[in-house]
Write a structure and sequence with these properties.
Distance between the termini: 126 Å
Largest sheet: none
Helix content: 55-70%
Structural class: mainly alpha
Number of helices: 3
Shape: flat
Number of strands: 0
Radius of gyration: 51 Å
Strand content: under 5%
Length: 168
Amino acid sequence: MSLHLGIRRPRKHRAVDAVSQLRAENHLLRTQVVGAGQAIAVLERQLADVRGKQAEAEQVVVCLSTDLTERTEERDQLLTEVDALKARLAPYLAADANANKITVPDSVRDTTAAEDQATAPIDVRPLWEAHGIGPVIRIANAPDTTDSRTPTWVPSPDNETTQSLRVA
């Protein structure tokens, strides 16, 4: 009967084991190289497609730029022609406006409609002036400031500002 206490002896490294590990690693690396080659081939095809599309886009941009230049020149010529035609037409428009003008004497105005009635100036005054009333709070009748229930903003009757604010 042998007694094992959970202590293992380290295995001795043999050359055969190292060779098999190196072969497995070599196989793994070759597989990675093949996969990388395939990925590179896919990326190169995509790059070729993108470069082709870029060349087409550049050609389209050149064509559009030429077309834009031609259209701009044509627009400028048409604007010049429109200005010349407006200058030639202006006297005819003015003569037509003078021949068909609508004249009303200065002192005559039809005010029979309600929306054409003249308005009075707007009376802008404070409400107490407009209605002849005084301020709502009279300082002369203010509550006693010594009372604890009186708000702090109420001035005392003997204060000099109270005398100036007092309304009779």
